[in-house]
Amino acid sequence: MQYSMNKIKLCIDLNQATIDPLCLQEIIDLIIINPTQAEIEEILNDYNVIYEIF
C-alpha cells in the first residue's frame, strides 16, 4: 500500500518582533488533520506572520 503525503515547505522569518504562540499552536493542531496550504497560509496571515513558501 502506498501513502501519498502532501508537503508544504514554509520559511518563517524569525527576525520578526514576535510570533504569537497561539499561531504556532493552531498550525500544530492542524497538522494532525493534514491541512491544505491555504489553511496554513490563512492562519499565518491572520497573525501577520512573515513567511515564504517554497
Kindly list the characteristics that best describe this protein.
54 residues; globular; 39% helix; alpha+beta
Structural features, described:
The protein has two helices and two strands; from the N terminus they run E-H-H-E. It is 39% helix and 11% strand. Helix 1 runs antiparallel to helix 2. The protein is an alpha+beta fold. A two-stranded antiparallel ribbon has the order 1-2. The longest helix has 11 residues, at 21-31. It has helices at 21-31, 37-46; strands at 10-12, 51-53.
Multimer state: single chain
Structural class: alpha+beta
Order of helix and strand elements from N to C terminus: EHHE
Rg measurement, Å: 12 Å
Strand order of the largest sheet: 1-2
Task: Give me the count of strands.
Answer: 2
Detail the poorly predicted runs: none
Shape: globular
First and last CA, distance: 29 Å
- What is the typical, i.e. mean, pLDDT? 82
What is the makeup of the main sheet?
Answer: 2 strands, antiparallel
Which percent range fits the helix content?
25-40%
Strand content: 5-15%
Q: Tally the helices: what do you get? A: 2
